[in-house]
Specification:
The chain has 72 residues and is an all-alpha fold. The chain is 65% helix and 0% strand.
Length: 72
């Protein structure tokens, strides 16, 4: 490691984002349905609710696969 790398590592800041948000099953279902209402709404819906896009995609995956399992 050179001196530039060492200086960069010493300047790490931690940003407190607060505690995790807890979403009820009803809230999750409503958000998932909203994201499915039109094509390409995942990112916009995630931003609207302050979610990461990947979390919303995970919720959509779980929701659609649980419905498929129930109907099987």
């Amino acid at each position: 490691m050179d001196s530039h790398t060492i200086n960069t590592l010493n300047r790490l800041e931690v940003v407190d984002t607060g505690r995790r948000r807890r979403w009820s099953e009803e809230e999750k279902a409503r958000i998932v349905l909203e994201s499915l209402s039109e094509p390409r709404l995942v990112a916009a819906t995630a931003r609207r609710y302050g979610l990461s896009r990947s979390l919303l995609v995970t919720w959509r995956f779980v929701d659609t696969h649980s419905i498929a399992l129930l109907s099987y």
